[in-house]
Structures are given as structure tokens and as C-alpha cells.
Design goal:
The complex is a heterodimer of chains A (375) and B (443). Chain A is of the alpha/beta class and 375 residues long. Chain A has 2 domains: 266 residues, 3-Layer(aba) Sandwich (Rossmann fold), CATH 3.40.50; 103 residues, Rossmann fold. Chain A contains 12 helices and 17 strands. In chain A, strands 3-2-4-5-7-6-15 form a 7-stranded mixed β-sheet, sandwiched between helices. Chain A has a 5-stranded mixed β-sheet with strand order 12-14-13-16-17, sandwiched between helices. A two-stranded antiparallel ribbon of chain A has the order 1-8. In chain A, strand 2, helix 2 and strand 3 form a beta-alpha-beta unit. Chain A is globular. By secondary structure, chain B is of the alpha/beta class. Helix content of chain B is 33%, strand content 18%. In chain B, the strands form 3 sheets. In chain B, strands 2-1-3-4-8-7-9 form a 7-stranded mixed β-sheet, with helices on both faces. A 6-stranded mixed β-sheet of chain B has the order 11-12-10-13-14-15. Chain B has a two-stranded antiparallel ribbon with strand order 5-6. The chains are: A alpha/beta (375), B alpha/beta (443). At the A-B interface, strand 1, helix 1, helix 2, helix 3 and helix 4 of A face strand 2, helix 2, helix 4, helix 10 and strand 11 of B.
Chain lengths: 375, 443
């Protein structure tokens, strides 16, 4: 029992399974199929999907809806992500749970709309002012598109922050065969029950106060039994604007710490380590397809090789990769850019040679190219 | 939804202000406008938990901090986008947007579209004709001739008529006035209750910059308005469906786009290694549809299939290439560098296959329509001529692809026929095309 589906369909199913009930986006190749699909799906489950007048409006609507208790999603490609930049910052500062799909295409500006690239790896990491950490997941198969979309919603709510799902044209639009059930459909988690009737006492919550052990303030949406404030300015825990150095310093450190100190809850990498292997292949996204095929062929030919497919690009799964590097003499990092993630691996490699396998012409890396690095 | 009328649940409130005094310059119009807003909320006796004040950047963006309602303070010019999201998610909330003339200008596209959509927001434009927070620079509403820190010799640009702009684009309630208007609170209350896109263009003094630069005063402001022939008072009021309510009232499309189409293997194909097959035709020629059917037939034969399409950004012109992989095992690598077989349907498609043709050798197969039979390749070329088969335009690609699949002995015919029946509406024409394909293969 199998089915033939593409990554966009799996992402839509993942969103529905995660309880997504708000989508806003602007048409852009190769992300438009997510928009078109959710315009049909969300009204059927009582949610809202809207096509904004541009990308800035679309992500703004998502942020407003998320603070009103919706599970919000948006999807775009590089040129649209450029327009998201300021709002990504707002979502970081205001602590907004939001999932952003970036279906990468090739090149800067308009680039190649129907051409694959993996050039947004560092852009999503540093794509807004201030230099704060973000979370970015990268599925490498149709089934992972489904699983990691659900995971992205979980992380967005857990850490009250924007979470990127970094995919690409091939993954979203290429049909592949999956075992039935591996890419949904699933059942959305139960939503909180109806709110208690409002009493005459009007409560106001302290919107940015959190328990130290938890590290993240709980989100109280608009329209509940308390008034709630939101701001994108430097603020105190009541969301009032402040310049007080102690308060502002604590806020900015909190925005870093809530990700950095919980990396073990976020980091993900799929390791396929072979005893005796001296070479480790590292890749992510679509490129992992060729890597897995190359590993299979190498082993068939009696050559030992290990494989790491990074699923949380940000934060870098440093702990698991560090262990995977034990006994490895050389690391091959394969990606459809000229080494954006290789530099992260080099930081962890402790002197091991790190070889880049790169392509930036709209074509996929091939298993043969991986195998050539072994000779 | 918290739909219960708020007035039955809360103690009547004497004010919606909190205890903090306004931070604005002496004589600034912002305090006056906010007092009008407070009076409007008090008049309506809304539950503060059901009201969201949305603001952006500039001195007016500080406003939400002085109210006891819920609040959203966002980025310059984007307040309408957040407010739209809030209203769409929670149509029961009363959403009031506060923005300056700066936010109105930078968010111009949002203004047009919020009005056009008639989303139920009440928008108060604090229009003091310049940027008061960043040093008195000119804005889109600065009158021609006015002096600001960026128009020292006099503004050369015509000011934006905010009211006319939103009125002509569908706003439900449009008002222009000043911060001194006696009935402003009443009007704001009326607008909030109207559940339409309501906009107030409220002229006021910026005593920090605009007043000293232009020797302005209440009298001068009114003269400027009159000189620009800008009408005041209630300028438009119309009944039109409000977006958030209309959205909820619309009947959703019945058919899901993501329902699983489970393919249960019915027969077996004798494939013991991945087979890579490329079909090259023209956009609009149903190449992708034909190859998708073959991919489905592959899965129905117990194989794994992957289909990667390549096409230009245009829709009905240029090439359309579909790369199909059929394999006995799960397919990780979906790329094709050397096809086992290639079908050339049109010159558009053939132009994109030079690399493939060069990579193929004597053990590979090329199928081509007669006019492309001279393709430069070492592969064995077989002519397929669907032209004589009297097929509809949508059937040609499928017939030729079927002919190639039949000649290659790739899949059992019953799998193709089963796949053809998956789309009930097209079953008959697909089956006819497949039958034609088998005749072509035999001929």
C-alpha cells in the first residue's frame, strides 16, 4: 500500500496534522502549491487561509493571527523571504510561534524560479537585524516533509519563536513513492477546551514573564479571560517599552538562551555510521537523496563510509555530529551552494580535512560525484 | 469564540485609560485624539479583553501603553497587516488601529488592500503632517509648500488624500476631521460598532516640528485643509460584506486536495534495477499528466516511482520534460544523468535533451516522432508516430508514452489501464489513448 505524492502535499498534511488553522501567503514559485492547497483545506477544518497583497502583509497577518491563538503557517521562496526579513525580527522579539516554509530556488533576486538551489542556509540563520538564534529544520524526503512540519509546529509553540522549514524546489514538486501512512494524514492534537466564562474581574497577564526552568513565557492569546500586550520594541515583562539596561540586557539574553540552552530539545541529525569508515558524508535536504544512494553503492562495493543527514540546520546538531566524527579522517560536505554549511562543519571538525562538494547550476549533485570523493 | 455581549459581564468602566500619564509634547494633538478614543470605548462599554489596540511606529505608536485593553505594537506601517490577521482569526474582537501619517505612507499598499477587502477595523490616522519622532521629516501627507527638515525650501510633492483613497477603494466608513472635533468620540464609537473598514484622517498639531517650521496653529491647519479643498466630516458610509464575517459564511470547497490516493499493487513488473525514462515535449502538451499515469502504473505494479518535472516559468509555451524513475526499491536520488530511455515528442522538448542524448549509448533507447528521428545519439532510435492515430491533443503524449513503455516491456498493460481509471472523469479518454499506444507499439 503506497502512494505517490510530492513534498508540498506532505507539508500541507503535516500542517493539518499539527493543528494549523491559519495560513497567509503570496504566490511564488515553487511554494505556490502550498498556498493553493491550504486555501482549500483550511476552511474545511474551520481555519482561515488568505492570500496577502504581498509577502510583508502575509507574514504580518500570520503574526497577528498567532497572537490571537491560531497555529499559523506561511510559505515562500527566496525573493519572498527577503521581504519577510523585518517580520522575522518582530516574531523573534515579540516571541511569536510561527512556521515559515522556505522552498529554496536558485540564485539572488529573481534567480531561477523553477530551478533548485540551497542558497538560503545562512540567510535564514541571519535573515533579520540583531543577530539572534533561530530554528530551521530541513527535511530530506517526502516523509520527512510531513514529520518535520509537525515538529516545526511543536518547536514554534514550545519556544514561542519563528521556525523555518527549509526545503527546495525538488523536494516540494517532485513526486515520490511513500508507504501509505508515512506522510499522513494524521489527526490534529486536541485544542484547549472552551475557555471559562469571563467574570467581572478583568485580569491582565504579564505577557513576557516565565518560569526559569521553562525558559519561555506561556502565550496567552487575545480575546481570552485577560487582557494581554505584545510589542516588538525592547520591553519589560509587561510589554512596556524600556531602555533600562538591566531589563533590556536580560530580555536579549533570554531570546538567545531560550534556544541555546535547549539545543538538546531541538537538534536533529540522521546518522548512518559504519564501523571502520574513515569518510563521513554530510548533507541536508534534497542533496541527501544522492548521498544515501552513494552510500548504498559504496557499501555494495565493499567500501566503508558513514553518513550524516542534518535535519536541524539551526541549531547545528553539534553534539551528535561531534560523536559521529570519532574515528573519521575526512568529512565531505555536499550542498547546492559553495559551502554555506561546510563552514559550520569546519568549526566542529577539530582539524580534520573538510572537503566541499558543491553545485550551483540548477542541477542535482549525483551519487557518482559523492563516490568520486572516495577515490 | 467569546461571543457573549461584554456589557453583561463587566462592571461599567469609567475609563479605558490606565494610570500612566501621556508622554507627548505639550500641545501635541495625540493626547486629544486618545481622549476621544477613550470616550468612545467608555460610551460602548466594551469588555477591554475583547478590544485590541494595534499600533506601529512613531509617537502615535506609543499610544497603546496608556490603555487597559489588549494591545499589539508592531513595525512601521504594518499595523494593518497584524490587525487583519487578528480580525480574521477572531472576528468577535474589536480591533482599533492607531497609525501616523508616516505609517500610512510606508504601509500604503496595506491601506489600499484593507479598504478594498472591507476588513472590520477602525483605523485612526494621527495626521500631524510630518514625522514627529525622527526629526520632523516630510511625510506623504505634508502639504505642498510646507517646510520640514527634509523640505527646507518648501515641499514640492502633492499630499496624499487618505480619505479619498480608501473611500474609492471600498472603505465602509470614512471621516476627516481634527483633534479638536467635538463629535469625534461619538463618530469613533459609531465606526467601531459598524464592523466595516472605517478610517479617520485626523489632522493635528506637531508642536515639536511642524508648528515651529511652518508657524502653524489650529487656524493655519484649518486654512490649509480648506486651501487643499479637502472635505471634512463623514465622507463615506456604505454597507458591504465585511471580510472576516464573509469568510466564515462562505461554503468551503468540498474536495480535499491532499486526501491519500492509495495505490495497491495489483500486478508485478519484472524490473530488477532502477529504470530511468525521460519524456520531452512542449508545455501544454500534457507530458506531466501522461508520465504521472505511468508512474502510478509503476506503483500499481509493485514498483517505486519518482517523477521530476522541468519546465520554464511560462505556462503554455516552451519545453516540458518529465523524468521518471521506476525502481524495485525506494528511490532516494531523483536525478537522472543518463536515461535508459528517452521519448522525443516535440522540438521544444528535444532542444533540452542534448546532454541526455550525448550520455546515452547503444544499450539505451530513444523513441522519437518522425521529424525528430535524426536525433544525434548513439542510442537505438525507434520512430513512434502518433499523428495517424486520430487522437485529441490531450491524448497524444499519453499514447506515445504508452507506445514507448510497451516497446520497452516496462509495465503490464493492466497496470496502465488501472492507472487510467484512477481519475474517473478522464478514464475513458485515457483508456483510449493507452489502447492507441499499444496499437502504435505493435505497428
Amino acid at each position: 500500500m503506497r502512494e505517490l505524492i510530492d513534498g508540498s502535499t506532505a507539508i500541507v498534511r503535516g500542517a493539518l496534522a499539527a493543528g494549523c488553522d491559519f495560513f497567509a501567503g503570496y504566490p511564488i514559485t515553487p511554494a505556490s502549491t502550498i498556498l493553493m492547497s491550504l486555501m482549500v483545506e483550511l476552511p474545511r477544518v474551520g481555519g482561515v487561509a488568505v492570500q496577502g497583497e504581498d509577502e510583508i502583509a502575509s507574514i504580518g497577518m500570520c503574526i497577528g493571527a498567532a497572537m490571537s491563538g491560531s497555529r499559523a503557517l506561511t510559505a515562500t521562496s527566496g525573493p519572498g523571504l527577503s521581504l519577510y526579513s523585518e517580520s522575522i525580527g518582530l516574531a523573534v522579539m515579540g516571541e511569536v510561534p510561527l512556521v515559515i516554509v522556505d522552498v529554496q530556488r536558485l540564485g539572488p533576486a529573481t534567480g531561477g524560479a523553477t530551478t533548485i538551489g540551497q542558497g538560503d542556509v545562512q540567510f535564514v540563520r541571519w535573515g533579520t537585524s540583531g543577530g539572534f538564534p533561530i530554528i530551521a529544520l530541513a527535511p530530506s524526503s517526502v516523509a520527512e516533509c510531513y514529520e518535520l512540519t509537525i515538529e516545526a509546529f511543536r518547536l514554534a509553540e514550545r519556544f514561542r519563536c519563528p521556525v523555518f522549514l527549509l526545503t527546495d524546489k525538488e523536494l516540494n514538486l517532485t513526486l515520490n513513492t511513500v508507504e501509505a501512512g508515512k506522510a499522513g494524514p494524521g489527526t490534529p492534537p486536541p485544542r484547549p477546551g472552551p475557555e471559562a466564562p469571563r467574570g467581572p474581574e478583568i485580569r491582565s497577564v504579564v505577557p513576557y514573564r516565565y518560569e526559569p526552568a521553562d525558559g519561555v513565557p506561556p502565550l496567552v492569546p487575545y480575546g481570552g479571560d485577560a487582557t494581554v500586550r505584545f510589542t516588538g520594541s525592547s520591553h519589560d515583562e509587561r510589554a512596556f517599552i524600556t531602555k533600562d539596561p538591566a531589563t533590556v540586557g536580560a530580555l536579549n539574553r533570554h531570546l538567545v538562551a531560550k534556544i541555546e540552552e535547549h539545543r538538546n530539545e531541538i537538534e536533529r541529525v540522521a546518522l548512518d555510521l559504519q564501523p571502520g569508515a574513515r569518510t563521513l558524508f554530510v548533507s541536508y535536504g534534497t542533496t541527501a537523496g544522492a548521498q544515501r544512494e552513494a552510500v548504498r553503492r559504496a557499501r555494495e562495493a565493499g567500501r566503508a563510509v558513514s553518513s550524516a543527514v542534518v535535519q536541524s540546520l539551526w541549531p547545528v546538531p553539534a553534539t551528535a555530529l561531534g560523536k559521529a566524527f570519532e574515528g573519521i579522517e575526512r568529512i565531505v560536505v555536499a550542498e547546492l551552494n559553495l559551502g554555506q554549511y561546510r563552514r559550520e562543519i569546519e568549526l566542529l571538525a577539530q582539524g580534520r580535512p573538510v572537503i566541499g562538494l558543491h553545485r550551483m547550476d540548477g542541477e542535482l549533485l549525483t551519487p557518482d560525484q559523492f563516490l568520486e570523493t572516495l577515490s | 469564540m467569546n461571543g457573549a455581549p461584554a456589557s453583561t459581564l463587566i462592571t461599567p468602566l469609567a475609563t479605558y485609560r490606565n494610570e500612566t500619564p501621556y508622554p507627548f509634547c505639550p500641545g501635541c494633538g495625540h493626547s486629544l485624539i486618545l481622549d476621544h478614543l477613550n470616550r468612545a470605548l467608555t460610551r460602548l462599554q466594551l469588555d477591554p479583553r475583547g478590544v485590541v489596540l494595534v499600533s506601529d511606529i512613531g509617537c502615535s505608536g506609543l499610544s497603546d501603553q496608556y490603555f487597559s485593553t489588549s494591545a499589539f505594537h508592531g513595525l512601521h506601517g504594518r499595523s494593518l497587516t497584524y490587525a487583519t490577521g487578528i480580525k480574521l482569526a477572531r472576528p468577535d474582537l474589536k480591533v482599533v488601529v492607531i497609525m501616523g501619517d508616516g505609517g500610512t505612507g510606508i504601509g500604503g499598499a496595506h491601506l489600499l488592500n484593507a479598504a478594498r477587502r472591507n476588513i472590520g477595523l477602525t483605523v485612526l490616522v494621527f495626521n500631524n503632517l510630518n514625522f514627529g519622532m525622527t526629526g520632523g521629516q516630510h511625510s506623504t501627507t505634508t502639504p505642498a509648500g510646507a517646510h520640514t527638515s527634509t523640505t527646507r525650501a518648501g515641499n514640492l510633492e502633492r499630499p496624499l488624500d487618505v480619505c479619498a483613497t480608501v473611500a474609492v477603494n471600498g472603505a465602509g466608513y470614512v471621516y476627516r476631521g481634527t483633534s479638536w472635533d467635538k463629535d469625534l468620540a461619538e463618530r469613533i464609537a459609531e465606526a467601531i460598532e459598524s464592523e466595516t473598514f472605517a478610517l479617520f484622517d485626523i489632522w493635528e498639531l506637531c508642536t515639536a516640528y511642524y508648528v515651529p517650521f511652518n508657524d502653524s496653529s489650529r487656524k493655519e491647519l484649518l486654512e490649509t485643509m480648506s486651501h487643499l479643498e479637502l472635505p471634512t466630516g463623514l465622507l463615506a458610509r456604505r454597507q458591504a460584506p465585511e471580510l472576516a464575517a464573509a469568510y466564515r459564511a462562505q461554503t468551503p470547497e468540498g474536495r480535499s486536495t491532499v486526501e491519500p490516493q492509495i495505490l495497491e499493487p495489483r500486478c508485478a513488473a519484472g524490473l530488477d534495477r532502477p529504470f530511468r525514462f525521460v519524456v520531452a515535449g512542449s508545455a501544454g502538451g500534457k507530458v506531466r499528466t501522461a508520465v504521472r499515469l505511468i508512474a502510478q502504473a509503476g506503483v500499481l505494479s509493485g514498483l517505486w516511482a519518482a517523477q521530476r518535472d522541468d519546465y520554464p516559468i511560462t505556462v503554455k509555451t516552451g519545453h516540458s520534460l518529465s523524468e521518471l524513475i521506476l525502481a524495485p526499491e525506494e528511490i532516494g536520488d531523483t536525478g537522472i544523468t543518463r536515461p535508459d530511455a528517452l521519448l522525443l515528442l516535440t522540438a521544444d522538448g528535444a532542444k533540452k535533451c542534448g546532454r541526455h542524448l550525448a550520455a546515452m549509448d547503444e544499450t539505451d533507447r530513444v523513441f522519437a516522432v518522425p521529424e525528430l528521428a535524426d536525433a544525434k545519439t548513439r542510442a537505438r532510435v525507434t520512430v513512434v508516430d502518433p499523428a495517424g492515430a486520430k487522437l485529441g491533443k490531450t491524448q497524444t503524449a499519453l499514447a506515445a508514452t504508452t507506445a514507448a513503455v510497451a516497446r520497452l516491456g516496462l509495465l503490464p498493460r493492466e497496470a496502465l489501464e488501472e492507472a487510467a481509471r484512477l481519475d474517473g472523469r478522464r478514464a475513458e479518454e485515457n483508456l483510449a489513448a493507452i489502447a492507441a499506444g499499444y496499437r502504435l507499439a505493435a505497428g
